[in-house]
Amino acid sequence: MKTQKYMLFVLLSAITAMCVWIWAWADVQYTTVVSDTGTWDLRGVDFLSGNFSIAGDVEYIANALLTPEEFEARRHDIVTGRPETAAPFSTSRIRILVPPGTYGLMGYSSEYASRVYIGGILTESVGSPGSAADNSDPMMKLLFYTANAPDGLIDIVQQASNYVYREGDSHANIIIGAPQAIREIYTKQITLASVMMGCYFALALAHFVLYFLLRSYKANLWFLLFCATWFVRTGLTGPKILTLLLPLDWYMAFRLEYLTVPAGTLLVCLTLNALFPKVLHKWFRPALAAACGVCACLCLFMNTVFMSEMMRYFYIVVFLAAAYIITRLCMKLRKPGAEQVAVLIGMGIFLYSALRDILYFIGISVFPFAERSIAEVALLVFVFIQMASMLQGTMQEIAKAKEAEQILVYENMMLRRLNEMAESRGGKPHIFEHLTIDSTSTRVYWDKTDMRLTPKEYALLWELIHRRGEFVTSAELYEKVWGLPHIGDDHTVRSQIYGLRKKISEAGGKITIEQERNKGYMLVFHS
């Protein structure tokens, strides 16, 4: 048992280290430069030593979709600010002053449909921005492109519209640097998402195998479905790998992404309920299932703007459910096993990171890694810890099932022996002085007092009587009564002997079960 716990600890430590290494490898290092004029002056910076992220206000014209030439012609209409909060569609301009040369640019497309012009040339179309919802085709993706600035100016004009989400993304959402460095960052973002998808897919397959091996252990089924759900979610967020591989339009992808939240919440609850039986109230699962079902129906049938608003309130439900589960675990869990402790540690890591990220996104930095979101890697750590713990649990359940099967075989064999003994005596009981053993009914009496022995106690007494006058070792008793190889733990035999002694004494029996170290147990009759 100690060896298993040690191996579990080593495995979990290795898993955590691997996830942290992947997260650190994909870290994006940059310096943020803020402007409130729509022009960023980077002529004095060294692009060989680092990358830069631009943030702040941009020049824009609201309620107009204009080419760079048309935008310049309407200079009198240009204002400075955040167009994503001012109008459903607009055209913006960003000017970046740099040393002459070629630069790499990376960022998510603006709003939820956009066209990007660099140096007056149409460079990228993401969906189709429109002046009304009917003529707009939404889409969003991670962009990478290069820009030549022979005269030291990168001029970016963006047409953008948003009719599908409660608020649009910033138009100033660009990282700039040397082309090779930005290409490497872009590749890392794609690779990280692909690796995480691969991890969830592999975990889903692993739990499919575990569930196939032991279908009575439902935790594997629920966690299999959770890993499959989060595989889909990971492919629909960030760089949106699945939308590149499958013919999914934006609306279908968006609904699938949002459906994974109630589905994942319910599946995690079912998994924890299977791992920690009798901890949650009976009403909790149907109540949470109803809330998740309502959320899923809204995700299927309501418009996407309503969905994005509604999800804020569903996160409150998720938070309350998590608080309830943690409270019940603290109240009810007294002596958790190693697997349960590992799951609790994983939950703690993920819940801390989720709370820390909420504070991070509202501008409050919390140690450690104060400048970066950590919820994604924390969730991956939690999922791997859960997998390792459930693998351990599955192996234990399989061992228990095999032991129970062997015990059943032995008990059937013993019953046949007893029946044969009863038949050989014509159904008459065995009598040893004042002790009567009725092998037909498997009852034992001292004089006329029924000792009410359990099957194991009955089998132990019979073995001791069969070899009365000699010592029988714990190993011999264990192998005879349990029908399993002895593994060096005498606690099982010792506890059954204790119960047998107690019942003999309560029945007034003048029998003792003597014990000597390194010899075992011997049944002694007293006159």
Overview of the structural elements:
The chain is 52% helix and 18% strand. The strands form 4 sheets. Strands 2, 4, 5, 6, 8, 9 and 11 form a 7-stranded mixed sheet that branches. A 5-stranded mixed sheet has the order 1-3-12-7-10, with helices on one face. α6 runs parallel beside α8. With 527 residues, the protein is α+β, with helices and mostly antiparallel strands. It folds into 3 domains: 244 residues, Rhopdopsin 7-helix transmembrane proteins (Up-down Bundle); 142 residues, Galactose-binding domain-like (Jelly Rolls, Sandwich); 101 residues, Arc Repressor Mutant, subunit A (Orthogonal Bundle), CATH 1.10.10.10.
Q: Main traits of this protein?
A:
3 domains, Rhopdopsin 7-helix transmembrane proteins, 18 strands, alpha+beta, 13 helices
